[in-house]
Specification:
By secondary structure, the chain is an alpha/beta fold. The chain contains eleven helices and nine strands.
Amino acid sequence: MTARYGQLANFFMKINDLGLMLAALWLAIVINYAPADQATVSAYAVDFLSSRIKVGNALLGGLLLIIWYITFELQGLYRSHRLSTFTDELKEIARATGIATVALLIVAQAGRWKTINLRTTICIGIIVILLIGGMRLLLRIHLRRLRLRGHNIKKLLLIGNGPRAEWLARHVAQRTDLGYRLVGYVDEERRFKDRATFDVPWLGFIADLPRIIANEVVDEVFITLPVKSQYARIESAITILEEQGIMVHLFSDLFPHKLARSRAWEFEGAPLVSLHSAPSISWRTEAKRVIDFVGSAILLVFLLPMLLLVAVAIKLDSAGPIFFIQERMGYNKRRFRMIKFRTMSADAEARIKEIEHLNETDGPAFKIRHDPRLTRIGRLLRKLSIDELPQLINVLIGDMSLV
């Protein structure tokens, strides 16, 4: 998933997995211990929980949830599985479930939970694999449909234009379900040898890489250069890319790197190593995105009456739109539209030339202490920084963050 939605999606996936673990625990106990003469399964479950929830058990249960969370995180259940198969992901789920059920058995022995024995634990493990595996399969099907419709797409840059690059370009073009779109390729030669891949644009030489990643949206890079003859170029490219936090995939041995973390993958049977220097999605980034989302939503609801009054005041004070919308650069060079209350006259941009001599700063910045283009209400909004409040909408949708 892309960064805007990936943090929230990972957060809810973790909550969902812990919920499925608890559901599996409940199902296993009901299956193994519910008496035949009990009126309903739900009645037994309520009776079971009401008679066994104590402070000590609640504390052990909380510890167990933390252990499960850490286990699933360390086993890689929440990393991107864009390049891996469902079989590989299912193996990770089975491995994480095995560790989690062993932890459950240990905690049960410490808490003297008689209903949690080896048979119940095995039953729980099977149910968990079925539930979480089924949810991941549904997620893959959903993401596949989204990517086939052009959503959840990552921009991909190739470095190299040899047979391996041609092979990769063909597979990326054929496997639209992976959600990659080729931006182009970089190499000392200007075109692929295979005519079938001529539509992949040549963006420049390897020396032009800083300019290319500054001007293009690039999420990931595949380096397909031969190691033996192109070692210096590959090392230079990795240094540039890891400074920008761009994930790098190599069809070769690792090179010295100070920041990037490496992980082995397999793509269509070919070994692949990924180097990633940007901070990975973790509980910290997820918590920050949740705080941004909830905080901006609450503030927008709380401030709505004042925002409506300001909007009316702007319309009554001068002709023109209520909001000033300007394009800004966001994560990974992605552009977004920043929203502010309009504080200047509607023709402010057209009047820059006539007041250029009043500029009080040097360079590209343009600042006038008593700007004649400011409206009466605009001066007050700027003084109180109220004109910035609509940016909470940008925070809500993930373009910006609360600081």
